[in-house]
Amino acid sequence: MAAGVPSDALGRRLLCGSEYATVRYVGSVPPTAGIWLGVEWDDPQRGKHDGTYEGIQYFKCRHPKGGSFIRPNKANFGVDFLTAVKDRYALNDERDVQHGTENTLVFGKKTVEFVGIDAVAEQQRQVQLNQLVDISVRECAVSHAGQKEEISRTCANMRHINLSKNLISSWETVTAIASQVQNLETLNISENKMKFPSTSTSVSSVFPNLRILALNRTEITWPEVLLCAPGWPALEELYLTSNNITVLERPDNILQTLKLLDLSDNQLLDGNQLHLIAHLPRLEQLILRNTGISSIHFPDAGFGCKTKMFPSLNHLAINDNKISQWSSINELDKLPSLRSLQCHNNPLMDTEKNPETLRQLIIAKISQLEVLNKSEILPAERKGSELDYRKIFGNDWLAAGGNWNPEKNKPSEEFLAAHPRYPSLCLKYGAPEEGELKGRQPLTLKNQLLTLTIKCPENPEQKPVEKKLPESMTIQRVKGLLYRLLKIPGSELKLSYESSKLEGKEVELDNDLKPLQFYSIENGDCVLVRW
After folding, report:
1. Strand pairing of 340-342 and 260-262?
2. How far apart are CA 465 and CA 472, in angstroms?
3. CB 182 within 8 A of CB 206
4. What is the mean pLDDT of residues 481-501?
5. Which residue range or ranges hold the CAP-Gly domain (predicted)?
6. Residues spanned by CATH 2.30.30.190 within the chain?
C-alpha cells in the first residue's frame, strides 16, 4: 500500500476538507501515475462521475455523479478516540517547541532544571481525564479506538459519550471503544455511515449498562439492529431515525427492556409492520413521525375491546404520515395504556375545517387520552367533547337502529365500526333524547343566541334572571356580566349549569377561556352561580 494510505483503506471513511466520503477504490488510474483513492461522497453534488473513468468502471456509486478520484495526501483518515478527547478538552501535551525550556527556571545567570516536571504534568492530565463523565467528540474525525486498553486506563469514569458525525467505518470500532468503558450508559453514534454485522456475533457484556443508544443516519437495517441487540441487555431508549428500515421482524428474547423506540423518517412498508414489534413488554413511547404509514389496525380486538398489543404504550407519535381514515383513530382506543398522542399533519386533519371540532372528535374517540398534540386535555374539555360527539351523531345512531328503549337498541355493525365508543358514551351520559337532536345546529355556527336562566341557589333572595347570550361568549365574559348584575367580583364566582335534558346532572363551567358552546349549553338550560 502506498505511503499515507492505511492497509485497510477500502471501505474506510475519510474527510477531504470539510466533505465526508467512503473509500471505494485504491490503486492506479491510467494513464496517470501514482495511487488514487476512488471515493463516494456523502454529498453527491461534490462528485463528478459514478466511478467510471475513460470507459473503465473502477467502483460503483449510488448516485450517477457521486464519485471522484482524490490523491491520498488530500485524505484525512481520522484520529483515535483518546487523541480526539484530549484535543477537544485541551488536555494534549503541547510543550514549548524549544526543547527543555518549559522545565527550567533562570535565577540571575544560573539555570535551575526541575527534574520530573513532565511526569507531574502527565499525572495531572490523567487525573483530569479520569474526572470526565460526559464526553462529546462530535465532528472530531474519530476513526478508531487506539491502543488496546488505553481508554480504560485513562477515562475510567465515562458514562455518556457523543461520537456523532465522525469517521467510524464499522460496528467493531464502536465495540472496541465501548468495551473499555465499563459504566457506559449513553452512546450517540449517529451520522456515522458504517458496516454492521451480517451474522450473529459474540457480544457478551460489551454494553452491560447501556440505557440510551442513538443510531440515527447510520444506514442500519432492522435485521442488523436485531443482530447487535443481544449486546444491549439493559437498553431503554433506541433512536433509529433516517435509516434504511422498511420492514420489521419480531424481536425474540431481545430488546425486552426497551421503553422508547424512535423509527421516524424510515419509510415502513405498511402499518402492519407495527404488529411485529407490538409485543415488546415495556415499550412506553413509540415515535413514528414520517414513516409513510396510512393506517393502523389491531385485529386481535373487536369494537370496544382492548388489544393485547403494545401493553405498556402510553405515548404514540404518528404525525407527518398518510393517515386519512377515522378508523385508524378508532383503533387507537384499543391500546390499553395510551395517554398521549401526536397526530398532526395527516390527511385526516383536512376532513374538518374547524381545528377545535377536529380536536373534540379525537378526544371523544379515544377514552383514556390525557394529552393531544402536546396540549393537556382537562376534564371539562373531555366532557364537552363527549357530550357534543353524542349529539352530533345522535341522528345517525337512530337511523342505524339505535333506540332509547334498551330492548330495541340495536345499532348496525356499520355504525359501531364507525363509532365504536358511542355505546359507552350513552352509558356514561344517557342516550341522546329526541329534543336534543331536533334541529341540531352544526358546531361551526357562531354567535347563536342562547336563552338561559341564571339562578343563585345559595341566595334565594336573588330572583332568577333570564338572559340571551351568544354561545361563543366565554365564561370569563359571562362572569363580567354577572359582576354588573350581582356586584360580586368574577374571581369569586363559581359557575355551573343544569341541562334541561339531563335532569339532576350539574356540569362545572371551570375554564374561563372556553365559550358556552364548549360545554354544550343549550336553550332553556340553567346557569347556577355561587360565591
Report:
1. unpaired
2. 20
3. no
4. 81
5. 27-71
6. 12-74
56 backbone dihedrals φ, ψ, rounded to 5°: -110, 130
Cβ-contact 486, 349 below 8 angstroms: no
Joined together, the cell numbers standing for residue 479 give: 362572569
Using DSSP's 3-state secondary structure scheme, residue 134 falls into strand
Instruction: Give the CATH number of domain 12-74.
Output: 2.30.30.190
Between CA 150 and CA 250 the distance in angstroms is 38
**Residue 367, burial from CB neighbour count under 10 angstroms (0-12, 13-18, 19+):** middle
Task: Please give the Cα distance from 354 to 215 (Å, whole number).
Answer: 39
CATH number of 78-90+121-217+226-238: 3.80.10.10
pLDDT of residue 93: 56
**pLDDT single digits (tens) 169-227:** 999 999 999 999 989 999 999 999 999 998 876 655 689 999 999 999 999 999 999 99
Residue pLDDT, tens place only, 85-119: 999 987 765 433 334 444 444 444 444 444 444 54
- In 3D space, the residue among 131, 223, 224, 228 whose CA is nearest the CA of residue 175 turns out to be 228
CA-CA distance, 160 to 186, in Å (whole number)? 5
Per-residue HEC secondary structure of 332-387 comes to HCCCCCCCEEECCCCHHHHHCCCHHHHHHHHHHHCCCCCEECCEECCHHHHHHHHH
Q: How many helices (H) and strands (E) does the chain have?
A: 13, 26
Sequence-distant (≥ 6) Cβ neighbours of residue 69 within 8 angstroms: 25, 29, 36, 37, 38, 39, 53, 58
> Residue 57: how many CB atoms within 10 A of its CB?
11
Domain with CATH 3.80.10.10 in the chain: 78-90+121-217+226-238
Backbone angles phi, psi at 306, to 5 degrees: -100, 140
Residue ranges matching CATH 3.10.20.90 in the chain? 449-530
Residue 197: cis peptide before it, omega within 30 degrees of 0: no
Specify the pairing of strand 186-188 against strand 160-162: parallel
Cβ-contact 358, 352 below 8 angstroms: yes
Backbone angles phi, psi at 520, to 5 degrees: 60, 30
With CA atoms as reference, report the closest residue to 495 among 458, 522, 468: 458
CATH, range 449-530: 3.10.20.90
Rounded to whole angstroms, the Cα distance separating 219 from 171 reads: 12
Q: Which residue has cell 375545517?
A: 353
